[in-house]
Design goal:
Chains A, B, C: InterPro entries: DUF2172, DUF4910, UCP015244, UCP01524_HTH, WH-like_DNA-bd_sf. Chains A, B, C: Pfam families: DUF2172 (PF09940), DUF4910 (PF16254), HTH_47 (PF16221). Chains A, B, C: Keywords: Aminopeptidase, Hydrolase, Protease. 3 copies of one chain form a homotrimer. Chain A folds into 3 domains: 243 residues, Zn peptidases (Aminopeptidase, 3-Layer(aba) Sandwich), CATH 3.40.630; 93 residues, 3-Layer(bba) Sandwich (Glucose Oxidase, domain 1), CATH 3.50.30; 77 residues, Orthogonal Bundle (Arc Repressor Mutant, subunit A), CATH 1.10.10. Chain A is 31% helix and 23% strand. The first copy, chain A, contains 12 helices and 19 strands. In chain A, helix 7 packs across helix 9 and helix 10 packs across helix 11.
């Protein structure tokens, strides 16, 4: 994953344009089935209009002495994303109106965008800015905005059931590692894992979209078709650093996505940060909007806005590590395992089953034995009443639901349990 | 308001009689539409019988040396309220059986009543009582009980809707300021404010009743007619001192009245005292009784029983101040504003609306901007799902609902929100 | 009760056999109506098979020097319960494989069973065991397993209603006092108390069963018949020591049994231990199993497993005392009183009733009076709305429901309250 991130890092992405398409092409090398969709500039998608494409060839500043002091080819954050063109000579004072830097992080180039109002500008470190001397600067941004299309990628991986899990990540930020590439590369690895999982119940839909407008465009095309099939899902973002794990709840707060992720993290990373929906900031804003109402939370390592490198050039491949990415992937995969396993089960006999004759209970009754495992087993069985689903039982009996899976499978095989629809239970 | 209270202070009110009528006449000077109703003595009102009228002309005690030591004309608390007549000479020892004072508040004349058992008596300060010397005292109470009527005032202020808010206050206590006059004068001022509010939705019913029996008489005459129209309301009492603000919940605990008052106080007076219904003590006892079931709480400054001057001559116009009264009025008015504004709203577009094109969102995306207001705005919109009413949204997003009103009106005007019936929502 | 326990103590009970029958016969002396049921060995009862009878005549160990060092006639815990027969001479080393003792309680003989796998063995104190010298030991257990029957006792005490309360206790442990005899003797005393209670509403079913298999056998014979008639009930076990009181909730957690016991203990023994169903360990495991779903909790003094003498010879009649037993009985009886009294009540008049004319309210209104009782009375009445049952009202108004009973009866007599079906209320 880290290698993929390295290769994707230099591409200058924006909401639209070549950067997005180049990124999608790269992903197709590993997920050939990925379909690339396009929506023409100017199309209305719900309340929004698809913006023009942005194409940038050059962006630099020449100092009064003619040296090139800022060049977007050094770092594509140097140019205000979606900047209009400019080719002028101007005094420093006037140039300052178009410069963006962070006084409190003097070594970081900030990430600034102006998607919905025409502006030109450069981003630079505060240190660079402070070293500028008065005089006339030549500023060149050779960019174009023109009618073209907005692109997003979609991959549908069918399962036994039509019900599906939606995984969404974004591909519109230029060279940033955690708040951009961690999402797509973890999603790519997840796709490979799920492709190999035999006996998966659910279908999976993976979307790689420009944030906000891309998610809105995707929903405007697919919502009617998929709305009632999506039973859970996550936005994956900022999922590659090593600092912590985080979960941001869906607007509905108690969906299967929320329950699975929160239960999983309680055991996988008990100190994880739990955010409510008021802390939202990525495409769950669209998926959970009123009337859309999809059960989508966000699985992250350190949440956007909660780490100092966020939206700067310091959000790079030192911050995002192989280990950070694989921890992120593992958390997503475990949440999905839980979603797959979660169901209502019901014991098939009245009263406690006789576990001894099945080799599941010690034959000697004595205070000196350790009954922990058998206790977990009987606790599990006693809440298999068709009214508690697997996660609810695990929370009730205070164990990790994923660790119940071998027991669950053994009991299903013994015929002591059956899967049921909720409350649709008739024992004996 | 303080002036009104001053003028009403000397009137000797009781459950029935001239004091009540004089008080209602005074109110009619400012609220000419106030109707005065009468219920004949002896009428059954639910489980109660309307008592006779009480008329008092004189009440005094002459000391053994002939000086008038107690005279109800000095302070109408001096006579046991609803006292029977007496005209006797008796030794101090016998007189003591008929005297009421407060050893722990030696300067206060207590307020004592005997409405439902015939008794005569005088109330005086402990200091006065301690100074009485043995000897024969002449005691005179020239009072009558006779069949007459019980009176209460009612004013109905129509609004756009037949649904109404009930405001109830009482007019049966003699010269006490917080635990009597604060309620009627705040109600009078509230009437004037609501009369001037254009575009009010609800109708308002104001009742000025003798406590308990008056509220019961009112309900026995009006309950059937108004029961299903009353959507909220408050008893106003003890609402004129400067010590604190208080709210006492209705029996049902989670009515619109309760939610509006509690949310309002959380911002208006965060240290306010919240009482549950077990602490009740005024006419909410009738309004919330089983089968009556009106959603009525009580808005107060310092609750009856919780201030040392309560039910004594010290509950006077030093305790109740202009500022205390206007703070009380303000709290009631704000609660009513919230009741008026509270409704279910639903966003009219799927996904987030594009706020930028409406000038509601900054066009530049940068970490350096302050997004607090825009965050409140998007938080507000995202819970406008037809399932949360305004108060619920405000609590969810942790802001003062009253401060959301300009935003709400702007969004309604932009067509981004519509008012809906709960859960009756179809977006796009 | 302590005397009964003394007489029952020496009987060598097991799951099946003479010990159980002898115990039931003893109980019949005091409860002649007790029916003794039998289920043949080998019968399937739900998922279980009724085991063979176990008959034991002799069990002892002769030391190498011929002295009898262990004899089950000294204490019937000395033999592994349900032990197979043996008659051998063997070296100490081999014998050790069949000895059970408790290193941490060197003076206690442990209670060990092997019901569902054939084994022979002896239990002894650690001190005894440590004193064994090497050499050849003669071990004799003269026991038989043969097809016979499993027995349990059942007594049905009819009431006004077909609805019934189930009381279950067990009779399969040999000489142990708290974790065996306290249950049956408290049940016997409870039967005598309930037989004398005139005007009881509910019927009562008392069962004396071998733990687990006996409860399962009973349910396999009776469940269909009684399932919808049982409205509450308790397992009585470990209910004779003086250390504490305990309640273990039913699986459904909020049944009438749970609410009555927990409310009762909040006043009767506020420091009682409350256990959730995860701490279960006796026949509530069967009664509360999914599909059985009976509302059965456990009333105890110190719970099994929570006292050091548990399942050893130290669980004797010093631990269980007359005072411990009668405290246990009292708690059960009070819980039952509450179950009997619990119902929905509704006030018959609108607004507050006039209590004064019924002598229930002071005629003088003064700050100096103590209104606690009248406050409890009015609080009680105001929640008699047909939506709160007696226990719910008591919890709402923070008083002991049992102390409300005289008030309740007085109000019923005054006609101010009527018993109603929940929510089926029409006042006036």
């Amino acid at each position: 994953m880290h290698q993929w991130a390295k290769e994707l890092f230099p591409i200058c992405r924006s909401l639209t344009g070549d950067g997005v398409r180049e990124t999608l092409s790269y992903i197709q090398k590993f997920v050939p089935e990925l379909e690339v969709h396009s929506v023409p500039s100017g199309s209305m998608v719900f309340d929004w209009q698809v913006p023009q494409e942005w194409k940038i060839s050059e962006a630099y500043i020449l100092a009064p002495d003619g040296t090139k002091i800022i060049d977007y080819k050094d770092h594509n954050l140097h140019v205000l994303n979606y900047s209009t063109a400019v080719n002028e000579i101007m005094p420093l004072k006037e140039l300052q109106q178009h410069l963006y830097s962070l006084p409190e992080q003097p070594d970081a180039i900030p990430y600034v965008t102006s998607y919905y109002a025409p502006r030109w500008g450069f981003c630079l470190t505060q240190n660079q800015r402070d070293s500028l001397k008065s005089g006339n600067y030549k500023v060149v941004i050779d960019s174009e905005h023109f009618d073209g299309e907005l692109n997003y990628g979609e991959y549908y991986l069918p399962g036994e059931s039509d019900e599906e899990v939606l995984i969404s990540t974004y591909i519109c930020h230029p060279s940033m590692a955690n708040n951009e590439l961690s999402g797509p590369v973890v999603t790519m690895a997840l796709i490979q894992q799920l492709q190999q999982w035999k006996g998966r119940k659910y279908s999976y839909r993976f979307v790689f979209v420009p944030e906000t407008i891309g998610a809105i465009a995707f929903l405007s095309q697919r919502l009617k078709e998929i709305k009632h099939r999506i039973i859970a899902g996550y936005v994956l973002t900022c999922i590659g650093d090593e600092r912590n794990h985080s979960y941001l709840q869906s607007r509905m707060e108690n969906t299967l996505s929320d329950r699975a992720a929160m239960h999983m993290f309680d055991y996988f990373a008990p100190n994880y940060c739990l955010y409510d929906y008021l802390s939202r900031g990525s495409d769950e804003r669209q998926y959970c909007a009123p009337g859309v109402d999809l059960p989508i939370g966000s699985i992250m390592r350190t949440r956007y806005g909660d780490y100092p490198e966020y939206h700067t050039s310091l959000d790079d491949l030192n911050l995002v590590t192989a280990s950070g990415l694989s921890g992120g992937l593992e958390s997503v995969y475990k949440a999905i395992q839980l979603i797959e396993a979660n169901a209502y089960y019901c014991v098939t006999v009245l009263c406690e089953p006789q576990l001894g004759k099945r080799g599941l209970y010690p034959t000697l009754s004595s205070m000196s034995l350790d009954y922990t495992d058998v206790r977990t087993l009987t606790n599990f069985i006693t809440y298999c009443d068709g009214k508690h689903d697997l996660i609810a039982i695990a929370e009730k009996i205070k164990v990790n639901a994923l660790e119940l899976l071998p027991t669950l499978n053994r009991l299903l095989k013994e015929g002591l349990l059956v899967k049921v629809e909720e409350n649709n239970v008739e024992i004996e």
